Amino acid sequence: MSKLAETSGRDQRPKAEIRRPKEIRNPKSEGRNTGSLIDPGFGLRTFFGLRPSTFGLQFVCIVFLALATCFVGCGKQAGYKPQPLPDDLPKRFDAQRAWRDLERVVSFGPRPSGSEALAHTATYIVEQLRATTMEVEEQTFRTNTPRGPITFKNIIARTRPGCPPRLIIGGHYDTKWFPDFRFVGANDGGSSTAALLELARALDKQPVDAWLVWFDGEECIKTYEDGDGLFGSMYFARTLHGQKRLREVQAMILLDMVGDRNFRLTLPKPYPLEQHLTKKTFEAAYAVGLRNFVSLLPTAIYDDHIPFLLNRVEAVNLIDYDYGNLPGQNNFWHTERDTLERCAPESLGIAGQIALELIRRVAMEKWPRD
Ligand SMILES: [Zn+2]
Q1: Most buried one in 40, 54, 254, 270, CB count within 10 A?
Q2: pLDDT digits (tens, 9 = 90+) for 240-286
Q3: Residue 228 belongs to a domain
Q4: Which residues 6+ apart lie within 8 Å of 262 measured at CB?
Q5: Distance between CA 229 and CA 234 in Å, rounded?
Q6: φ, ψ for residue 293 (rounded to 5)?
């Protein structure tokens, strides 16, 4: 991901350069019922606060449109009422087993999109999912990139066959391509892969409609801008949008960089569609005695949750964007130092428990909201 961090010296791009990805269509031409109701002014510029004077008005519009969408779309899912998830759900996250997944994934070496190592990773993920009762789908697509055409593959696991995407729990499994050094991405790419696998095991046979998604192509090849980076999540969101199914999504929960042995979540500064789930995350962490491991970043982060926010889906990014040997430096990120030695099973466990408690609480909320 790219950090839109005013405080970080490693931020590559000034905020004014952030543009709305091309994949997100102009809603003006799409009408109200499509599930993609982005006000034309609600591009990334506005989203990241560059036009604060108009944001209030746009927020009111967004709330209105969100309610309108709900009235149009909510009736579709009536009839299925998931039972509450068990109170002890967070305890089902086995940090040691997740750590073994991480070791295995890192053993494949650098895993950039289109590589043989990433294909091995995908095979490993699918093999692990075959041991659950989840329905597995491999979503393959080919698209142009700054390195030429690359075939990408998202992996989707559904808690029950054909269930609606009420909760989308995502993370990326590719690692950034660095031709000049060996980058194994134990934390950045590895930890999300492993944590999602263990979440899948914990949610197996549980009464919740959830899709777990391993996104390919989160990492940009050159710079995070139109046509580079977030390939998998953009494609996934666009596909759901095309199927008019985004309205079925209650929440998108993203995990990224959750392996740092000095672990603490730094939730991005919440914009309107992140506020509810950010608050819920703090509540969930407090409930499982892990409140000290959650903090708030003063800035936004460009990551796989963005395509969902742009499509008006509530989302939260469970990320620890402080990966380094000095506070705030983040100097292991995207370097050859992102290795297993700088990660720990306990960190995966903390992130996993918070995520499961958050999932449990979100699943208990009334849905559809009518
Ligand atoms: Zn990265």
Answers
A1: 254
A2: 999 999 999 999 999 999 999 999 999 999 989 999 999 999 999 99
A3: yes
A4: 322
A5: 9
A6: -100, 15
Specify the DSSP element, H or E, that contains 2. Answer: strand 2-4
Determine the distance separating the centroid of ligand 1 and the alpha carbon of 303, expressed in angstroms: 9
The structural domain count of the chain equals: 1
Longest C-alpha distance within the chain, in Å? 55
Cα gap 77→166, rounded to integer Å: 10
Alpha-carbon torsion, ordered 45, 28, 313, 195, to 10 deg: -70
The answer to whether residue 282 is domain-embedded is yes
Q: Whole-angstrom Cα distance, residue 173 to residue 186?
A: 10
Domain CATH number, residue 9: 3.40.630.10
CA of 126 to the centre of ligand 1 (A): 23
Q: How far is residue 97 from each of residues 128, 284, 349, measured CA to CA in Å?
A: 11, 23, 10
The answer to whether residue 125 scores a pLDDT higher than 70 is yes
Say if 168 falls within a structural domain: yes
CA 1 to centroid of ligand 1, rounded, Å: 5
Distance separating alpha carbons of residues 291 and 287, to the nearest angstrom: 8
Instruction: Assign 43 a pLDDT band (cuts: 50, 70, 90).
Output: very low
Structural domain harbouring 110: 2-364
Give the length of the chain.
Answer: 370
Q: What is the pLDDT of residues 314-337, one digit of tens each?
A: 999 999 999 999 988 999 999 999
Q: Please write the tens of the pLDDT for every residue from 170-225.
A: 999 999 999 999 999 999 999 999 999 999 999 999 999 999 999 999 999 888 77
Determine the distance separating the centroid of ligand 1 and the alpha carbon of 75, expressed in angstroms. Answer: 39
Distance CA 21, CA 3 (A): 16
83 CA to centre of ligand 1 in angstroms = 37
The tokens of 38 are what? 């982005």
> How many Å apart are CA 278 and CA 284, to the nearest integer?
10
Does the residue 369 lie in any domain?
no
Exposed/middle/buried for residue 131 (C-beta within 10 Å: 0-12, 13-18, 19+)? exposed
Ligand 1 centre from 24 Cα, in Å?
22
For ligand 1, the distance from its centroid to the CA atom of residue 95, given in whole angstroms, is 22
